[in-house]
Request: fold
Amino acid sequence: MAEQVLRSRRTTARLERDAVLLDRFGSGLRVRIPLTAIETVRARGPKGRRGIEIVLTSGPDASVPVSYPLRPSSTAAATAFAAAVNSTLPVRDAAEPRRDGSAAVSVLPKPPRVRRPGPGRTAGERAAWWFFGGLFVLGLGLTSATGHWEMVVIWTAFYTVFLVGCAITAAVYRATKDWWLLRHRGITVVATYERTSYGTGSEGETTSTKVYTFTDTEGVEREHLGGGRLVATDPERIEVTYDPCAPKRMSSRSGPVVRVLLFLAYVLLGLPISLLTAAYPVVYLYFVVAALL
Reply:
């Protein structure tokens, strides 16, 4: 099951396989609420500014149950998160006696956040920064030595465009590498739809992604995020090809129209941009050196 996340101004709620985790900003603590301790997640507040609250089971004394209110900026995201939690709660009979849910709640120190290394922090990224920075300085120095200041302006103005071309070239390289490896050593399996993962975008909008699962040759259950051409329904199933040497490298089989569009984009845009990007500094610096000699 994919993790569900709901962010509000003071609290981040995460739905995991068997619990809801609440991280309150600045507290350094994490509240862990087992799904077995939750009675329901329901709407809370006036319409238009509605949030949700996590209501725990009340226990045999029928006391007022403990609840945890959440009010994110997106009402749609709150509704989607409530639906996701409610769909994972254990099925109970209305007359079934409940345990006091608050007794199962635990408060733990929040684990340190694992940050992805920022730009230039890994060895490969540092090498890329030094290479492109050095190339810019080299080109700037050589064009300045020619005395043709219009060439300096052109080199400086178009260097950003060149970097964008480098990013596109890197994406084309990764796509080509993935296609080649999956074609020569990939294993194709049928993945079954499990659920839709909801999240919040950078501007507060609700995002949704289909989650398909399959079991690899080692018996490990894997997840594929995204869609593909359906090979069966009820439940939905798609074909997924993954690399057994690097299971995170995977791709779903698309329909013929999508494959044709991707091929045209690769041939008509990706490859020409990559070739022009590779040729630009070589040709430009050739003319600069020629002007110096």
